[in-house]
Amino acid sequence: MPIAIVSAFLIFDFYKREQTRLIADSISRARAMISVIDGKFASTQSALSALGTSHRLASGDLEGFYGRAREALKSMRVDSIVVADASGQLLLSTRRPYGEALPEMANRAHLARVLETGQASVSDLYIGAIMGSFIYSVSVPVRRGERTMLLLNASSAPSRLSGILTEQKLPDSWRAAIVDGAGTIVARTHDLGKFLGKKVNPDLLSRMDSADEGGFKSRTLDGIPVITVYSRSPTTRWSVVLGMPLAELTIGLRQTLIWLIVATIAALGIGIALAWFIGGRVARSITALAQPVMALGSGELPTIPRLYFKEANAIGETLLNAAASLHKAKYEAHHDALTGLPNRTLFHFFVQQHLTLCQRNKTELAILYIDLDGFKLVNDTHGHAVGDQLLRQVATRLTSAIRDSDIAARLGGDEFAIALVQSNLENAAAFSMRLIEILSAPYQLDDIGAAISASIGIAAYPVTERDSDMLLKKADQAMYKAKSLGKRRFCIGA
């Protein structure tokens, strides 16, 4: 009997360590999932920031910006784009025809937070004024000078996030939920219709307010005893919560204790040896996961060996999925979805970085702002599918024309830009002449022939301007001058 008691204690201790490990692994899993959600929000925020630089928005041309917003909506994986003024009045929504009367924003607290901080923000779940159903929003302020004049929002239904839970392939008995910063359920693996928009239990809410990660015993809202683990984003304050039924975790212990009553000393010895053997594998599995977690945190793609336990392998697969999702989100945030070219955000970053090098090394940099002549006629005559095919062929010609050290980007619509490293105005002018001929060559779009040309505006550092924004502005102005002089030509910005 004393031996059985000691053995029971050892097995029970092993069980507790396994439970602690499972909690730690599950917290890592929740952390990886909230990282994917943060990546989705960051991708949307980057797209909104790029959209917010539109000259149509800055000039007050809301009708023109409405068209730009509807085009951007196709690649952003959100349900609508909304513009509101500082008072909360909605000025346009891609869910309504332009010019239709719109209500005020429903989430005034979110508006106040963005106006007060001047920073982009993710809202909590709320009932949208236009949709009349639950939504959440990613918002960025649009400034004019020091003042925030407008709020640019991308709104989505909770169903946009449900797929993240499904992709994890959690056990059917587990409960998983995505919770906003106020503790409201946004997505859930079970009975979402019943619990959508409801608060998590007060104990969980209290623990999330006191620590960003943790695990403890509790009951789900549908009354199931579970071990609950959670991970809360330090950026958005949204959380992922996982609930593992206690019954599944304790049944193995009860069976082991019954078996110990009738076990022999020899069987006991085998059991102890086996426990230590398994414990070593558990430790090696946890150690093997440490480096991939650190790699994920630094933005690298982790390499994960095959581990001893399915739970550890599941965590490893989750880390790989999270890393792939983060890498994809980062790529999509900096590249145009249609052509694959760098977008406005990445182009601005490239120019700013190379201006710093130019100032340090006393070298030159030329900017070409390109607008396609005749694209609208092709697009209107043959449809958007043909227009998109034409834009992709233009992108191919641009990338073939530049050097590896240069960059070609799509700024939106039929506007492109090129940065020529270590090139002066004379080099840029000669390149522009060749580029106009390249872009004016006939296009074959399936069985449709098309002919367009290009108008190019040129600006260069340090001759034209020394600031990245002013360089782009001067190149843009020069492009419009080229169009006014008859198109299919280039002009140099003054």
What does this molecule look like?
By secondary structure, the chain is α+β, with helices and mostly antiparallel strands. The chain is built from 15 helices and 18 strands. Strands 1, 2, 3, 4, 5 and 6 form a six-stranded antiparallel sheet that branches. The protein has a five-stranded antiparallel sheet with strand order 8-7-11-10-9, with helices on both faces. A five-stranded mixed sheet has the order 13-14-12-17-18, sandwiched between helices. β15 (443-445) and β16 form a beta hairpin. It is elongated and about 100 Å long. The mean pLDDT is 87.
Summarize the structure.
By secondary structure, the protein is an alpha+beta fold. The protein is built from 15 helices and 18 strands. The model has no long low-confidence stretch (mean pLDDT 87).
Q: Work out the strand percent.
A: 15-25%
Global outline: elongated
The helix content, as a percent range, equals 40-55%
Mean pLDDT across the residues is: 87
Work out the helix count: 15
Largest sheet: 6 strands, antiparallel
- What separation lies between the terminal Cα atoms? 96 Å
Category by helix and strand content: alpha+beta
Got a strand count? 18
Please state the CA-atom Rg, rounded to the nearest Å. 29 Å
Provide the low-confidence segments as ranges.
none
